[in-house]
Design a protein that fits this description.
The structure holds two protein chains of two kinds. Chain A is built from 15 helices and 18 strands. Chain A is an alpha+beta fold. Chain A has three domains: 37-108 and 241-436, no CATH class; 115-167 and 178-236, no CATH class; 443-543. The termini of chain A are close together. In chain B, the strands form two sheets. Chain B has a 16-stranded antiparallel sheet with strand order 1-2-3-4-5-6-7-8-9-10-11-14-15-16-17-18. Chain B has a two-stranded antiparallel ribbon with strand order 12-13. By secondary structure, chain B is mainly beta. Chain B has helices spanning 5-21, 28-40, 50-60, 63-68, 101-104, 210-213, and strands at 77-81, 92-100, 106-114, 120-131, 136-152, 165-180, 186-201, 227-238, 249-261, 269-282, 287-300, 312-314, 328-330, 332-345, 348-360, 372-383, 386-396, 399-405. Chain B has six helices and 18 strands. Classes of the chains: A alpha+beta, B mainly beta.
């Protein structure tokens, strides 16, 4: 049985033994299941001094992730999951659609706590004229600050819609994301603060002028009525500490004790990114913030910048390669060279309908296990079938109407484009579910009712399979100290998603743990049931 | 030494677990809290390796931008790297720019460069590129060049590879240029300038000097060099998607120039130039057929001749790639280049190409007979809008040549 942090011990027995011998011989061994298992919240908000701000060089990030093997390479189960294989709430992640149905209003509202910048005159306080997505920061009449990002002239609505839609999805999936609002304004609504500055391409700050703002706005898409559409991204509270890496830990963050490549929400992020075609899912689009409250501070971890998701490439329609091939891959390159270009990459010929507001996005060619981000991501490469199952299960929780409702938050003016986008997301969702739910036992929603263990088969629930397959069930007692299964207590069969609990378990003493091993074909799942206070609860789940 | 994360977590976990267990039951939350408290005693910022540190240093100080941006650099000075002219070898120099001066109208540029083969170039450019809403451009420029190892094989298509000689060519040019962009894609231009020329003994010791092997008959203009008043009118129609790395579209150029020998009255001539480039894109731009036809036709004034050092040449990295630079020379030139290009990788295009062309004296030879030809393969390292490094390998009847250039061929 592997649980939170227990894998650390199991993975390196020699090191454990060496250290254990150096310690007090009277130390009692830890139990597999603790009294507070399964934990729902990982309290990683212990006070830590403010860490140093981190910077990442784009070129090095590409180089080290493409040509070096970073992080811990052991094939280990995620280390931050609880005993039921769930991800506890933490500074990284908050269970939302993963644990309970979300209302349509909740999905549509996403992370938004308000309605965006207040109407009236917006004061431009700083500019960003360089880089792939130029924009500027405004303060609304309330004094709230937002960073405005725009659409390219070639593809009005595309980047702003992608940003907001993906923000809502990632929020529902559990991640910390900024509040992003679609706004429309007339340039005459802007005033440049006398103290506003802009950094030029040489990093030099100079006073920002109205002419510079107008020049920037002259290069972005406009609506038919002359207004400019933008995404207003609300400033995140806290001190920006720069991006986090997808491997290792931040050495000056006391709460960061799980290697990132072994965090389920970062491994499973692959599935979500494949769904939304977030090829730019690399460190540069993450951000750690140091938040303080009552003299105590800790680091909170955010995902940011979704302008390059769905069919958007931020400044133009997404190219054909993203999602299909890494920035550098030797095999297709040498295949192309050696065949003098006669061999074409399959994704070159994928057709996309002409929807400027969407860019290039499709679902027919998409394959959930073949999708690729811009370049290798250590957490993604550590993803195991159980991680993918956890993620796919969440993706499948969005109904067709949920998807359509979230897509509508992108405020695409073309109903055909909006409908196409939603249908693509639905199709990709189903492909994800159909693939990843088959890679491991698809039994889920375990619950104890009326003396029986009930469960669902997600393949049946979502229509990928017709019948609930009969499960062979083996029962045994579980030694919570040694972690061994002992004293086999027989076998039975589970039909129709139900296993009656054996009387010896119902009549056992508090603290007794039984394990039911359900199997059918190549996949199986072990359910650990504990008697506590006279009641039986599910204390652990292990999929195979 | 950077510690592996497991090396930090694992011993902490064991120490903490055992310590707490000695006191009784260990909850999951307590275990994690203890782990974090233990880590809080050994906090240290992440260390970067040297390469990452250097790259970040360059990023923070905008080194790349300073090198690329006119007017940036260090107080406006930037290094100037690259060949001065075909055959000069790699050149080093310095460039000084002051863009957008005089109320954003004027771009100033001064540069000086030299190569190990002692080629030199100095220029000053006063450019007004943004007049009348960027439709009009005016440029005044001065340029001095000293090229001491220019190759000369003689005139006409029947010269021999073994007849190679070299000469020193030196010129100073003063020029005023004006251009108009009446509609998108169309540029109409004119130039008026003064050209002072000089020819001397070549400095490449491997070959005889042109001045000792050839004479005025076989190299017109060798004995005396003239000053020219030069004027030109031209029109360009450019529909290419990216001029530096075209995948679709076309480029057409037609120009007529006059070189008026104002000092010796022996070497005046007119020149008609035409160029057509066509790009046919397939498979969403992953395959391109690129075709170029280029011709230059000189006609000397009555009783005068075209000096050899101003005649167009054929051979080298930009036209007939299976032959060395300046291999063929005469009053008239035509060349056809055909390339099949494909994207091997996002940063690498490859090409299979064939070149064919000839030089000729009489206009009656303006046909497709007796063309010199070559075939080859090319590697073009690029970003979307431009090729920054090209390696072309071409084979002709005179052998195999390899070119490494920092530009596209066309």
């Amino acid at each position: 049985m592997t649980t939170l942090v227990t894998n650390v011990r199991r993975r390196s027995r020699a090191t454990v033994m060496t250290l254990a011998m150096a310690l007090s011989a009277s130390a009692a061994p830890a139990e597999v299941f603790r009294s507070d298992d399964p934990i729902r919240v990982d309290r990683d908000d212990l006070h830590t001094p403010k860490p140093q701000k981190r910077k990442i060089n784009d070129y090095w990030d590409f180089f080290e992730n493409t040509f070096f093997l970073r992080g811990d390479r052991s094939d280990t189960r995620a280390l931050n999951i609880n005993t039921r294989g769930e991800v506890p709430d933490s500074s990284w992640y908050t269970n939302r659609i993963g644990w309970r149905p979300m209302t349509r209003d909740e999905l549509v509202r996403g992370p938004d706590t308000g309605s965006g910048p207040a109407a009236g005159i917006w004061t431009v306080v700083s500019g960003k004229s360089q880089g792939i997505s130029p924009g500027f920061t405004i303060a609304d009449p309330r004094g709230d600050q937002y960073f405005l990002k725009f659409d390219p002239k070639s593809n009005p609505e595309m980047a702003t819609a992608a940003e907001v839609i993906s923000t809502k999805f990632f929020y529902a999936l559990g991640y910390n994301v900024p509040e992003n609002y679609i706004v429309a304004f007339h340039p005459s609504n802007l005033r440049v603060d006398p103290g506003a500055t802009v950094e030029n391409q040489l990093g030099e700050k100079a006073p920002l002028t109205t002419e510079q703002v107008l020049e920037l706005l002259a290069g972005v898409a406009r609506m038919r009525d002359g207004r400019i559409r933008a995404v207003a991204s609300k400033r995140i509270a806290g001190a920006n500490l720069g991006p986090f890496k997808f491997y290792g830990m931040r050495g000056d963050d006391a709460n960061d004790v799980i290697p990132h490549e072994h965090r389920r929400e970062l491994r499973g992020y692959y599935v979500f990114c494949s769904w939304l075609n977030h090829d730019d899912s690399r460190s540069i689009n993450t951000s750690d913030f140091y938040v303080t409250s009552g003299g105590s501070g800790f680091v909170k971890h955010y995902l940011i910048d979704f302008g390059s998701t769905l069919g958007s490439g931020s400044v133009a329609a997404q190219k054909r390669r993203p999602g299909n091939e890494y920035l550098w891959e030797a095999r297709p390159t040498f295949a192309s060279i050696s065949t003098l270009g006669m061999w074409l990459r399959p994704w070159v010929m994928v057709t996309y309908p002409d929807h400027p507001g969407i860019g290039r996005f499709e679902a027919d060619f998409f394959q959930p296990d073949r999708w690729k981000p811009e370049y290798p991501n250590v957490s993604f490469s550590r993803m195991l079938p159980e991680d993918a199952f956890w993620a796919a299960r969440q993706v499948m929780r969005f109904t067709d109407d949920d998807v359509r409702a979230v897509v509508r938050t992108g405020k695409l003016s073309d109903p055909e484009a909006e409908s196409y986008l939603a249908s693509c997301l639905i199709k990709r969702r189903d492909k994800i579910g159909s693939y990843w739910l088959r890679q491991i036992s698809a039994l889920d929603n375990f619950r104890i009712e009326s003396g029986s263990l009930f469960f669902d088969n997600l393949l049946v629930t979502h229509g990928f399979s017709q019948n609930m397959i009969e499960q062979a069930v083996k029962l045994a007692l579980f030694d919570n100290v040694s972690g061994e299964r002992m004293d086999p207590r027989g076998e039975t069969v589970a039909t129709g998603g139900r296993v009656p609990l054996p009387s010896w378990l119902l009549e056992s003493n508090d603290g007794s743990i039984a394990v039911l091993h359900l199997s059918a074909g190549p996949h199986s799942v072990s359910i650990f049931l504990r008697k506590t206070g006279g009641e039986i609860d599910i204390v652990g789940i292990e999929r195979h | 030494m950077k510690r592996h994360p497991v090396a930090i977590v694992l011993p902490l976990f064991v120490i903490v677990s055992c310590t707490l267990c000695a006191g009784g039951e260990l909850t999951r939350e307590a275990e994690l809290r203890a782990l974090r408290e233990e880590k809080s005693r050994v906090l240290a910022p992440d260390r970067r390796n040297r390469i990452e540190s250097v790259l970040l240093w360059m990023q923070e100080r905008k080194i790349k931008e300073r090198l690329e941006t006119p007017g940036a650099g260090f107080k406006g000075f930037r290094p100037k790297l690259g060949g001065l002219s075909t055959g000069s070898g790699f050149a080093f120099g310095v460039q000084f720019d002051r863009p957008r001066t005089w109320s954003d109208r004027l771009d100033l540029s001064f540069s000086a460069a030299a190569s190990p083969r002692k080629y030199q170039s100095y220029d000053a450019i006063f450019d007004f590129p943004r007049l009348l809403h960027q439709r009009v451009r005016l440029t005044a420029s001065m340029r001095y060049r000293n090229m001491p190892q220019e190759d000369y094989f003689g005139l006409g298509p029947d010269t021999s590879k073994g007849d190679r000689s070299d000469y020193l060519y030196e010129d100073t040019a003063y020029e005023l240029a004006a251009g108009l962009r009446p509609i998108p894609h169309l540029f109409l231009g004119s130039r008026l300038g003064w050209l002072h020329t000089n020819v001397g003994e070549g400095t490449d010791r491997r070959f005889p000097s042109t001045t000792s092997v050839f004479d005025e008959k076989t190299a017109p203009g060798l004995s005396q060099q003239a000053d020219f008043l030069r004027g030109e009118l031209f029109a360009e129609l450019d529909y290419r998607d990216f001029a530096g790395n075209p995948h679709r579209g076309a480029y057409y150029r037609l120009g007529y120039a006059i070189f008026d020998d104002v000092t010796l009255h022996r070497y005046g001539f007119g020149r008609l130039e035409a160029e057509v480039q066509q790009y046919l894109s397939f498979n969403h731009g992953h395959r391109v057929i690129a075709l170029r036809f280029s011709t230059s036709l000189d006609h000397p004034r009555s009783g005068q001749s075209v000096p050899f050092y101003l005649q167009r040449t054929l051979g080298g990295s930009n036209d007939l790639r299976g032959f060395r630079e300046f291999r063929f020379r005469d009053q008239n030139v035509m060349v056809i280049n055909l390339e099949y290009r494909w994207e091997a990788w996002i940063g690498l295009d490859m090409a299979l190409f064939a070149d064919a062309g000839k030089v000729f004296r009489d206009r009656s030879d303006f046909d497709l007979r007796n063309l010199e030809s070559d075939v080859g393969i090319g590697f073009r390292f690029n970003v979307e809008k431009g090729v920054f490094w090209r390696i072309d390998i071409a084979r002709s009847r005179e052998g195999t040549r390899v070119f490494m250039k920092f530009n596209h061929v066309f």
